[in-house]
Amino acid sequence: MKALVLNGPYDLSYEERPYPDCLSDHVVVRVDAVCICGSDIHAIQGHQPLFTFPRVIGHEVAGTVHQVGQAVTGLAVGDRVCLMPCIPCGTCHSCRKGYTNSCSKLQLYGVHQDGGLQEYLAAPAQRWLKVPGTPAPQTLSMLEPLTIGAHAVAKLNLQPGDRVLVVGAGPIGVSCAVNARTYGAQVVLADTSPQRRAFCQEKFHLAVLDPFRYDYLETLQQLTDGDLFDGVIDTTAAKASMEQDWNWICHGGKIVFVGICNGTLELDGLSFHMREPSLFVTRNSTRQDFERVLQYWQLGFLEPDRFITHTAPFEQAGQALLQWVQPDSGVFKGVIQFPV
Fold this sequence. Notes:
By secondary structure, the protein is of the alpha/beta class. The protein folds into 2 domains: 2-142 and 308-337, Quinone Oxidoreductase, Chain A, domain 1; 149-281, Rossmann fold. It contains 11 helices and 17 strands. It has helices at residues 38-45, 93-96, 137-141, 143-154, 171-181, 194-204, 216-223, 239-242, 269-274, 287-298, 317-324, and strands at residues 2-8, 11-16, 26-35, 60-68, 80-83, 86-87, 107-108, 120-124, 128-131, 163-167, 186-190, 207-209, 229-234, 249-257, 278-281, 310-313, 334-337. Strands 3, 4, 5, 8, 9, 16 and 17 form a 7-stranded mixed sheet that branches. It has a 6-stranded parallel sheet with strand order 12-11-10-13-14-15. It starts with a strand and ends with a strand.
């Protein structure tokens, strides 16, 4: 089988590899589509701190079951599946409590182990989610990034009518925004990029503000009748943004950091404390998040295809990925498609 290997920064090549072994508790899946994540982009650029070369990247994977191990039940040849890419140890304190997404020894397909940009991928059956029907592969590959937003939004414990500000209008920010709307929340996005603001307004019918405008705070107050927001989700990973998020919440509001700041954050201790806020961070997603996203997609409340702006066939993926990582590429979400 063919695999696309990232040998080093901006160095991609195709290799012939053996068909993977199917262990008794594993499933071998024919890969149909791989959606490209921001972490994949960072890996190609050489900026992924958890990454080691060489590696087959790609963890947003859709496929069709090709072979089933002897001990596997619940999956059969021909089933459509998407990968749940977190690889928990199953034995640490976090795993025993069910927090598999924050396992102390967590690994990830496409980062610590080879991922989806190969014709076949073998993984334990519990890492695959069966999806009913015959969904389009590119649609199915978008479910995983939607689960990241679902996991973040769940931290807010939203009620209908709650107000949510999402800072950062990239794919994960928009994932958070559309997931928040499934709770009946009123959602506003903020982003410094005029192109991103226009894209989100057109494709997702979301209100998107420019946080650099002189009247940004005044606008936030007008939109919330002066109460500000019940929840703020920050996906930017930017120190300057994350240190200001508490200014946009109401008293008793909640903040969720999705983006990871590689540095020290400073808060005004007294002012922060007096609002009695709740501060959360979020990491990856769980099976429950996948099941919720699947349910709301099937109900029509989530539309994965709206995220996808670019596609390329697997045989041209090496060239396409090097184009997609360029700052002026215009890619929001790109999908690599395999022959079906």
